[in-house]
Amino acid sequence: MTESSVEREIDRKEIGLYVHIPYCLSRCPYCDFNTYAVRTWPEEYYAEALNHELAGYAGREPFRGRRVATIFFGGGTPSLFRPGTIASLDRSGRAPPRSRRERRDHARGKSRHRRAGEPRGLRAAGVNRLSLGVQSFDDASLAKLGRHHSAADSLAALDAARARASRTSRST
């Protein structure tokens, strides 16, 4: 088998999932995603509904017989959910089975949200990549964008994540 045929075989057996968590503490004026600004969110109910939906798809095509290699938790602000809830979405036993290869689970967090700076709990939940939403390091630009955090808040969240991560990267 050539390397490309091996890659095609892996591609047919492994899939990636996007799990949308639509809750935010406030709605950004530029956001076009399906999100809801709330002070409390139905975390347990939403997780149970997602697990039920995953179970419904697990035995059907194109998911039958395939393993999940990647889960991306996006939104909204997935870091509003407790790490244990994130873990329950991955370990429900009703979703398509996980790949034996290295897991690649991603979560988005916002710079001002307290859990975005708590990567230790997310890591224990199986998340091995955290993406922080930093739109600018200029306070005036952040205010124009309707953001409720400062450049200093973003830097503090990045420092907290970097201090607990085994490796980091950045994109501009």
Residue fraction in strands: 15-25%
Shape: globular
Secondary-structure class: alpha/beta
- Which sheet architecture does the biggest sheet show? 4 strands, parallel
Mean pLDDT: 77
Helix content: 25-40%
Secondary-structure element string: HEEEHEHEHEHH
Q: Could you tell me the number of beta strands?
A: 6
Key words describing this protein structure:
alpha/beta; two-stranded parallel sheet; 172 residues; globular; 4-stranded parallel β-sheet; 6 helices; 6 strands; single chain
Which helices and strands occur, and which strands form pairs?
Blueprint: H1 3-13, E1 14-21, E2 23-24, E3 36-37, H2 43-58, E4 67-75, H3 83-90, E5 104-110, H4 119-124, E6 129-133, H5 139-144, H6 151-164
Parallel strand pairs: 1-4, 2-3, 4-5, 5-6
Description of the structure:
By secondary structure, the chain is α/β, with parallel strands linked by helices. It has one domain. The chain is built from 6 helices and 6 strands; from the N terminus they run αβββαβαβαβαα. α4 links the parallel β5 (104-110) and β6. α2 packs parallel to α3. The longest helix is centred in the first third of the chain and has 16 residues, at 43-58.
